[in-house]
Amino acid sequence: MFDAGFWELLVIGVIALVVVGPERLPRLARTVGLWVGRARHAFYSVRDEIEREANAEGLRETEQSIRRSMRETESELRSEMESAGREGEDSIREAREATESSPADSPDGGADETPDDTRARTREDASDTRHG
Hints:
By secondary structure, the protein is an all-alpha fold. The chain has 3 helices and no strands. Helices cover 82% and strands 0% of the residues.
């Protein structure tokens, strides 16, 4: 607080001894010491409060930055999910269209022919051509 060296304090002490006198000097020194201590305590208290406020402001800025980043990430995720949902719906639609136009609409229900069915059909075709 004060930048007083040894010689300055010695001069102040001598002047106080002359002005106040030797009987009241110890009580004056004690009172001055108390007031200096209180002033120093008040100074440090104000300084600490200012530092806390500065740190709190920094924390608020950090919090706002994190919240902004979280909102951006949320927006990106929502966009990606909507895009994936649209792609999924398109795939389902294409699959439905493919199944609707598949051989399942044929009279035999789209069932694959077995080798026995193929042989029986070729025998019928052969007998029809001989009789015909």
